[in-house]
Amino acid sequence: MTHDRFRTLIDGALAIWQADAQTRFDAAAMRCRILRGAQTLAVLGYERTAVGGVWRIEAPGRTARTHLSIVPALAGLREAVCPQRPHGRVLFVWDAADDVTHAP
Amino acid sequence: MSPLPLSVITGFLGSGKTTLIRRLLARPEFARTAVIVNEFGDIGLDHELIESAEEDLVELSTGCLCCAMRGDLAVAVQRLFAKRSQGAAFDRILLETTGLADPAPILQSLLADAALRARVTLDRVVVTVDAVNAHATLDAHAVSRKQAALADLLLITKTDLAPQAAPHLRQRLQALNRDADIVHGVHGEVAPAILFHARGTQPIPSPAATAAAHPQPHAHDDIASVSLERAQPLHAVSLTLFLQALAGVCGSDLLRVKGIVALREHPDGPAVVHGVQHVFHPLRWLDGWPAGPRRTRLVLIGRRLRRDWVEALLATIEDEVAHAARQ
């Protein structure tokens, strides 16, 4: 993880969400404060540990969460910054064409 | 019995869908083609304009397929197959949508509906774009931009009436959907071989080959097409996590994902990935690689998708999975 990639991951997600928010990146650490005006919506940090990269999300009024993958970290960020935005899920459809017993 | 290829013909009102189908059906190579016409309004007209044997035509005129009639598509296909069992001879189906249809729910039905999947398989999505009115239509109607973004092939029509508009329109369409083929056709005259492929042979263009030639997204369009390429095979779990993250972040703003993927767990041939919004077809394995470089190529179409974000997301997931594999 580089600082550039860390920034890209956050900025790109906020752009997709059209989030009404600003970012303030810490130059010394991989840490970003996401604000709406003067209000902090969330603080997202990344650090490398013995078990690999770890993402930590802190948001006012919420329990701080630690994730071992970017995937739940982005989901947590969305909940903190854009809670009204529905969560999308992948649905792999069952391949009916391979099972003629289910064909009408 | 193998499912029959079904091609979706869509495009905004008056863009030439019916003209295209009429011309296609007049050609001998389209003699064995059935047509489903979806019309919106109390009086259906398009089906009257399409010269087809009655047993090869089904009209859906009680509403728009993308809204209230998704279940009716399965019924229409079932009716066609009932006619086939009684002697109607066809081995291809064309589905003409209404001009106002959002293709995504229709494509989702084709992927997800068990009854449909047993009988038909999605071939290509052909979108007609009227050179005379396209710019105003694309500006004013989000559904027309979505139609263009979901196309496998964009057919610019009426170029005889607005020849000066075609080059600019092509640029705009490329910005919406850089990986779709774009062809011109006047009065529906276009070679069928350009319009339709046999199943599973759709070429996935190389991002490196297309990136330099194609313009950046139009300033007023938030739909972007992003291509990814990887020389090294992916772990299967990386692909799964990547799709999960895309769907989770983008939700309904993820319009389409397609491509071929080399997976470490399956070295004999690549997997075909095909998804519309959050609904994905099960991975289909090819026996070998199609022509071109043997590398993963993915095309993602969605709103406000940034290439650097998509690249960073996949790279991060690949790093996480590689680290876990070393533990």
Overview of the molecule:
- The complex is a heterodimer of chains A (104) and B (327).
- Chain A is α+β, with helices and mostly antiparallel strands.
- Chain A is built from 2 helices and 6 strands, in the order αβββββαβ.
- Chain A has one domain (3-81).
- In chain A, strands 1-2-3-4-5 form a 5-stranded antiparallel β-sheet, covered by helices on one side.
- In chain B, helix 6 packs across helix 7 (142-149) and helix 11 (236-250) crosses helix 12.
- Chain B starts with a strand and ends with a helix.
- Chain B has helices spanning 17-25, 46-49, 70-85, 103-112, 114-117, 134-140, 142-149, 166-176, 192-195, 207-211, 236-250, 307-326, and strands at residues 4-11, 33-38, 57-60, 92-96, 120-130, 153-157, 181-185, 223-230, 254-263, 266-276, 279-280, 284-285, 296-303.
- Chain B is of the alpha/beta class and 327 residues long.
- Chain B contains 12 helices and 13 strands.
- Chain B folds into 2 domains: 4-195, P-loop containing nucleotide triphosphate hydrolases (Rossmann fold); 222-326, 2-Layer Sandwich (Hypothetical Protein Yjia, Chain: A,domain 2).
- Chain A binds chain B through residues 1, 5, 8-9, 11-13, 15-18, 51-53, 68-71, 74-75, 78, 85-97, 100, 102-104, and chain B through 2-3, 78, 111-112, 114-115, 117-119, 121, 240-241, 243-245, 247-254, 275, 277-282, 302-306, 308-310, 312-313, 315-317, 319-320, 323-324, 327.
